């Protein structure tokens, strides 16, 4: 049977439409949605996981070097592909009523639990930040903002072992409105917090009643005494005015003791995360070095908030520029991920101050 030329043309046109439609579907699935937004500095948990692993999310080394991101990618890759869509609707400003304790990072398991893995408790990769910093929210859809609420966890709260709750947060800033520029910045003061914290941002978009709930993991260097620490009984040796004694001047000989304590934050097959807290003695110090030996073949894979070197089983960790100077009895911390074989034992630490 012969087919007319017109029929053939119509059939080919239909095939072309189908092929074009299929191609559009494939392209639209190749990356994250272009609308909406998230906190990009310090990065929200899902934006950070997308930024670090979006082009290599099947790499098994993520399980050892970035285990919290690994569990999130394994739970649902769309959590990261849609890093800019973590919002609820029609909350009416009643954020604490809409988002239960333990579910703050997922926005109360919004959108059918798409972001539930972000509530997992553990040592999420944290970005070192100064105590006065600029928070940046990137809004690809240019929704504008009625306001941002910026919270930070209380000193002493440990996000590596405790679920995030409203009572664990302090509201440190409520901003005004922002025009639809697509980039919203806020100057944040973390006070004298030190160590690991969560910055929790609520972005109330202006185009609808559409709030976004965003967790960012940070490490503050600090150096001042926490509010609950009593003042030292004797003044620190570096009491001269800054014009005559720069802050990096070491204390006199005989002062400047420090101690270091080790705490394992999580563990998985073949790897673990840990945090070391450094505390100055009864006099101020201008720097510190922590050293230990691994007894059973452990090996550090990555670290933060310290310069870490290893030579076989021997490890040394020294302060970085922003967390070396500690006043009397003040603390700071650094962390790392490591691999292990056999028995994952706790090392004995020594701390040397400068």
Automatic annotation (TrEMBL):
Biased composition (Pro residues): 227-253
Signal peptide per UniProt: 1-35
Single GO term (MF): polysaccharide binding
Example GO BP: carbohydrate metabolic process
Pfam families attached to this UniProt entry: CBM_2, LPMO_10
Keywords: Signal
PROSITE patterns the record matches: CBM2 (PS51173)
Domain CBM2 residue range list: 251-354
SMART domains to which the protein is assigned, alphabetical: CBD_II
Location of the region described as Disordered in the Swiss-Prot/TrEMBL record: 224-257
PANTHER family (alphabetical): CHITIN-BINDING TYPE-4 DOMAIN-CONTAINING PROTEIN (PTHR34823:SF1), GLCNAC-BINDING PROTEIN A (PTHR34823)
Name of the protein in its database record: Chitin-binding protein
Species assigned in the record: Micromonospora marina
